[in-house]
Amino acid sequence: MKASELRDKKPEELQEMLVELLREQFNLRMQKGSGQLGKPSQFKTVRRKIAQIKTVMSEMSKNGELKS
C-alpha cells in the first residue's frame, strides 16, 4: 500500500492496521523461534509497512488531524 493511500484513511483505520501488523510481526518472530518460518523476507515487508503507517500517523499528528 502506498503512502498516498494511507493518507486517505481515517486515523482509526490506521490504528487498526498498525495493531494488526504488530500482531503479524509477533507471530513471525514466534515462527522464527520455533523454526517454522517459511519466508524470512516477510519480516522486512511487515517492518516497512509498520514504518509507513507510523510515518503517516506522525504527519497527521503534526497537522492536527490525529487525536492523541
List the helices and strands and how they pair.
Layout: H1 3-7, H2 11-34, H3 41-63
Helix pairs in contact: 2-3
Task: Identify low-pLDDT runs.
Answer: none
Order of helices and strands: HHH
Shape: elongated
Average pLDDT figure: 91
Number of helices: 3
Q: Helical proportion?
A: over 70%
Describe the biggest sheet? Answer: none
Write down how many β-strands occur, each being a DSSP E stretch of 2 or more residues.
Answer: 0
| Class by alpha and beta content | mainly alpha
Spatial extent as radius of gyration: 14 Å
What do these coordinates show?
Helices cover 76% and strands 0% of the residues. With 68 residues, the chain is an all-alpha fold. The protein is built from 3 helices and no strands. The chain is elongated and about 45 Å long. Helix 2 (11-34) packs antiparallel against helix 3. The model has no long low-confidence stretch (mean pLDDT 91).
